[in-house]
Structures are given as C-alpha cells and as structure tokens.
Amino acid sequence: MIDNNYFSHNSPTYGSPFDMLKKFGISYKTAGENIAMGQKTPKEVVNAWMNSEGHRKNIMNPNFSKIGVGVAQKSGGSIYWTQIFVG
Asked: How far apart are CA 28 and CA 56, in angstroms?
C-alpha cells in the first residue's frame, strides 16, 4: 500500500484480497481482511478493530484458522496495518 500510495482492500497490483490469495497459491474456503492506517501502537489498532463490528467479526470468526499480519510505516509517516484471515 505504501509503495503504491493507496489505502484500500483492493490493490491496484493484485486486485481484491481474494485475488491476491489465489495469485500467491494460498488455498482457503473462507477469507477476510482487516486494514487500518494511522494508529500508533498495536494496542490502538486492535482497539479500533474490536470497536468496529465488521473488523471484530473477522477477528472473532471461528471459521478462520490462520492469519497473516503486516505492518509498515511511511518514512516519518503513517503506519499501515493489515490482517488477512483464512479458513
């Protein structure tokens, strides 16, 4: 996201999170993604996600059995947070 200067569930390079999972050969029956930007600490971003119904549903979904987590920061700027869930 940082390198391509966007903040969205849809990547200009890979398409949707589901398209990206397929492109990288990750098999799944169900999948979801949480993204956030600007929170300064892991605690802040998890609190934000848990206070958002859709994000909380992804985190608590018993059908998800694996997670990938990414964190990146612009030079001197915002922090980008990503969770990808699969089951």
From this structure: 20
